[in-house]
Amino acid sequence: MGKLLVIAFGTVSAVITTELIYQCFVWQRGKRKQRKLKHEEEGMITEVLFFPDKEVACKNHFISDRGCFNTKCRYSHAKTSLSELYRHLNTADKSLDVSIFCFTCFDLAEILIMKHKRGVKIRIMTDDEQVDSSGAQIWNLRKEGIPIRTDRSSYLMHHKFVIVDSRLLINGSFNWTRQAITGNQENLLITNDSYVVNEFRNEFEKLWKEFDPKIYAESE
Ligand SMILES: *[C@@H]1O[C@H](CO)[C@@H](O)[C@H](O)[C@H]1NC(C)=O
Ligand SMILES: *[C@@H]1O[C@H](CO)[C@@H](O)[C@H](O)[C@H]1NC(C)=O
Ligand SMILES: *[C@@H]1O[C@H](CO)[C@@H](O)[C@H](O)[C@H]1NC(C)=O
Ligand SMILES: [Zn+2]
Fold first, then answer.
1. Ligand nearest to the CA of 135
2. One of this protein's Pfam families, by short name (predicted)?
3. Strands in 52-164 per DSSP E
4. pLDDT tens, 103-145?
5. Alpha carbon of 175 to ligand 3 centroid (Å)
6. Predicted model pTM
7. Calpha distance 55→198 (Å, rounded)
């Protein structure tokens, strides 16, 4: 009799536990769904890009007002990860805050110079040891009058992010090099989530002040 009671009790509690776990799962799933819906309703921008691209995107086709006239163009007119990066950078009409470890890609430098000439306020932060590396576009940009600051330590300014008009963050492993476009496995996350964007803005402002050459001059 006692044994029977134990079995009955065991069965009932097992059923209850299973039911509880299941309800908990349903509740969690509901919450996830709600979050996703909220996300979509707010129309938040989120995009994830992966490299390498199979082909290099044609900058003229995606950026220039007149498009690409070259009938024998060797570059891709189809959407790629790089063309998406171009598109987002091209939406800037106030500012571009760029923090990049290694910058050798000519096309990306050209976009910044074009934006600079159109009155977009550009600031670039990079690693001091990378500035001198061969083919670095940094000198070209500096020549155009774009403000550039670097760290001054043996540690690396290893960030790779861009803030567009203080509202959109492009962040990832992506170096601005040809090798990173068509060779490496790289990722970029693009978001306008205001919390994340603000955190990166604050960090940029903090480092921008720290890397002010005037401050170095005082401490030397
Ligand atoms: C993010 O972008 C979407 C779509 O353009 C816009 O509706 C939303 O207001 C933006 N969010 C923020 C915080 O700027
Ligand atoms: C930014 O990108 C780096 C490199 O991929 C990654 O480690 C970091 O977590 C990213 N940050 C955010 C907020 O996505
Ligand atoms: C960025 O480029 C530099 C120089 O080419 C390289 O040493 C470094 O490993 C690269 N970083 C990433 C994350 O690809
Ligand atoms: Zn083209």
1. 3
2. PLDc_2
3. 95-100, 121-126, 148-150, 160-164
4. 888 889 999 999 999 999 999 998 877 777 766 788 889 999 9
5. 6
6. 0.76
7. 34
